[in-house]
Design goal:
Length: about 290
């Protein structure tokens, strides 16, 4: 598969700050790629699976995702022996994170949208009644232009920002850069992990690094991530493994060692628990023509 291609989208005219497209044909017309624009994709029919970050997931009619800036992704429609081939029908919406100006997300009333965009950095699957409402609005966006299209997008974003029917897709460690806020402890934690990912990382060392006790850090970390520190660290490392499996020719053992696993048995156990397959099987799925 190799490294994802950075896609340069054509500049939009003033009335089309928000780009909308209807996708119909043999496939989705894309490869393993990324771009700075945020993206909504509604699969109405067709398609076999999507690959977002480190997660490869079978596609079903009605699949709706919201992807943040520079998150590698690919949608595929492969010929499966013994099953009828279905053409793709989908809707796609793209917009730049600064489409309303450089600092528009810094306003107090935009905090929910800022959090939504941060959540989308790992990819979001939209489910339930939220999915149904957004799907209807996306259909209207295809026919609308200018201000009407922009208003529909803002309604969608407002709906997503308040929804409890959003599911994270990719592991947080897959995207190569971790955005760090110097004013928050989590920024310091993320930076420490990124700098030491190939070494043994202990909870006590991280707690000391940010100047708190182990107990305080453990409670703080779980409250911010919903996971224990060891569990999060293992998922982060597995996500990096997935990226290297897709983008390098290194052996599985070399990749495991590079990502901080000193025990192959432990590594394989965690990988299979998260992805339901072995690293070699994962790589075969990625490179499947």
């Amino acid at each position: 598969m190799g490294k994802p291609i950075q896609e340069q989208l054509a500049p939009h005219s003033a009335p089309d700050v928000v780009a909308c497209a209807r996708i119909e044909g043999e496939n989705f017309g894309c490869k393993w790629h990324f771009h700075p624009e945020l993206e909504l994709t509604l699969v109405q029919s067709g398609g076999t699976h999507r690959w977002i970050g480190d997660k490869i997931t079978p596609l079903k009619n009605g699949d709706l995702t919201f992807l943040g800036s520079n998150l590698p992704h690919d949608y595929r429609n492969e010929v499966i022996p013994g099953k009828p081939f279905r053409k793709v029908k989908a809707l796609n919406v793209q917009f730049h994170p600064q489409f309303l100006g450089r600092n528009w997300l810094s306003r107090a009333e935009m905090i929910p949208l800022k959090r939504l965009f941060e959540q989308a950095e790992s990819g979001i699957q939209v489910t339930g009644s939220t999915r149904d409402r957004v799907a209807v609005a996306m259909g209207k966006m295809i026919q609308a232009h200018g201000l009407k299209r922009l208003i529909l997008l803002m309604q969608i974003l407002d709906d997503l920002a308040s929804s409890e029917e959003l599911v994270q897709i990719s592991s947080p460690g897959f995207t190569p850069e971790i955005h760090i806020s110097e004013s928050e402890r989590m920024g310091l934690v993320s930076a420490y992990i990124q700098e030491n990912i190939a070494k043994p990382i202990y909870l006590a060392d991280v707690a000391k690094h940010i100047g708190v006790s182990e107990v305080t850090f453990s409670h703080y970390f779980r409250s911010r991530t919903g996971k224990t520190f060891p569990s999060y660290l293992n998922e982060l490392r597995i996500a990096r493994v997935c990226r290297m499996l897709a983008e390098t020719d290194d052996t599985v053992s070399q990749i495991a060692w590079t990502c901080g696993f000193d025990s192959m048995a432990n590594f394989l156990k965690h990988f299979k628990r998260i992805h339901g397959c072995t690293p070699r099987e994962y790589r075969q799925r990625v490179f499947r023509p």
